[in-house]
Amino acid sequence: MTSKLLVLDTSHFGQWVKDASSRRAEDRRRAADFKERLEGGGWICAFSHEHLAEIYAHADPDVRANRLAHLRSMPLLAYVKTIYGPEGGFGGIVEVLAREVEAALASGSAEPALIVEAARSDIFAFAPGAEILSHLDALGSVLIDLMQAQAVKARKIVALARANVEQPPDVTIDELLNRPIRTAEERRAFFERYGSKLLQEVVDRGDKRIQNPEMVADDFTKNVLEAVRQVDASGEHPVVWLLRRMGLRETDIGRDTKLSDLLRISHHRRRALIATQGRGITPRDIVERVQADKLPSAIISDSMERFGQEPRRRKGSVMNDIYLLSLSPYVELTSVDKGTYENVGRASARSSAFRAIVGPVIRRPLYLDLI
Q: Which residues 6+ apart lie within 8 Å of 311 measured at CB?
């Protein structure tokens, strides 16, 4: 029987573990039944760094312990590989992105579906749960502290990055260059409005667990003001100053190119550069030979952000949801929560590129109904 990979949503995995560790025989039978369905159907659960991050960042030590114990008990699981081998533990979106870059370079293709096929065989490795977890267990509480700090940071990033404050003008670069530059008074008034609205977004729409939203908004606004100060010191036009620092090629900028397009290209190119460090890939390789914004994981994240419906509260876990969805082209089934499932439908309806590469997804209230 050919093995099939299943990426469990973290909530489904949590349900399974809760039943498996329950004192009630009925709950434990339900968990055992799901395990039998997996084995009987040839399914192997696939995990990534994002699964581990949510486990280690959980506030309840008993929940953390039970979920880690469940992973250790699994006779075989799939995990995203890292360049460090099993000792590197569970890889995540960074490793997936790096493998997509390698596949694009090796195949010489910019076609997302071909990149998926070229990368597929090198995304996952297989091992007993106890074996792969042993490398992480050796780190002890250090890993818990690290993951919890990352979770705090993720909440701030999502609250700020998705805040509806000031979007790039939907105009071409030529049009933007011909716009008048704000006077000092206009700039002062703008940043007063900007800081106030950003704070309101963090308070009203950000994760409720963000501590001191005033400081979060203020620190970000100060960073923007520092960038403005650097523009003034350079004597350059603000648009020219920005373009110089975006790592763009001349061929990236056409007469009808919009700033939002260039920001997207620059964002994904920088992600690709970071992800491939230590892999023998030069920045020139990526800039000249890889369309980073056309990589499968880039298409998925862009489409979910562009076409997905914003939740009432922008929780830090939304990043993990998209990262786990980026595994879907490489597995047979990915379970997702209600919001992600609906946004997959929205993105599929409006983006042919997304529809062509996203893998099968399923949404069920209970883990037992997934297969």
A: 318, 339
